[in-house]
Amino acid sequence: MSDCVFCRIVRGEIPSKKVYEDEHVFAFHDIHPAAPVHVLVVPKVHVDSMAHLDGEHEAAMGRLMVAAGRIAREQGCTDGFRTIVNTGRVGLQEVYHLHLHILGGPDPLPPMLKR
Ligand code: AMP
């Protein structure tokens, strides 16, 4: 059992503002929002980063993407949104549990918004 911060959020050991949960995916508001809509979507299975994915994760990543599109629609991002997956040191990843940022709100989003 991992004690990473997002695993602990998934288990309910750390509070979060949950927006979605199913058997495989958990989503919650980013604690430091960079846009009016800023949701993090995580697989319940722990994977450090996109660089750690292999074939056994294909189904989990498919579920993550499908859930992200649904969550963005439910958050009101009907005209579009941005998704970001920061990976590793160069990618400025802060939390080493793979996660997808959904960013939406201003129309259009700033071109260089990092997350
Ligand atoms: P990154 O790893 O760079 O893709 O970003 C990690 C994101 O997780 C940042 O945007 C943080 O604000 C966010 N974050 C870190 N801890 C929490 C938490 N306990 N609840 C919600 N968001 C968090």
UniProtKB/TrEMBL annotation:
Catalytic residue list: 99
Domain of life, per lineage: Bacteria
CDD domains registered for this protein in UniProt: PKCI_related (cd01276)
GO molecular function: catalytic activity
Sequence motif Histidine triad motif, residues: 97-101
One protein family per Pfam: HIT
InterPro entries registered for this protein in UniProt: Histidine_triad_CS, Histidine_triad_HIT, HIT-like, HIT-like_sf
Residue ranges of domain HIT in the record: 5-112
PROSITE patterns the record matches: HIT_1, HIT_2
Gene3D superfamilies named in the record: HIT-like (3.30.428.10)
Entry protein name: Histidine triad (HIT) protein
Lineage, broadest ranks: Bacteria, Pseudomonadati, Pseudomonadota, Betaproteobacteria, Rhodocyclales
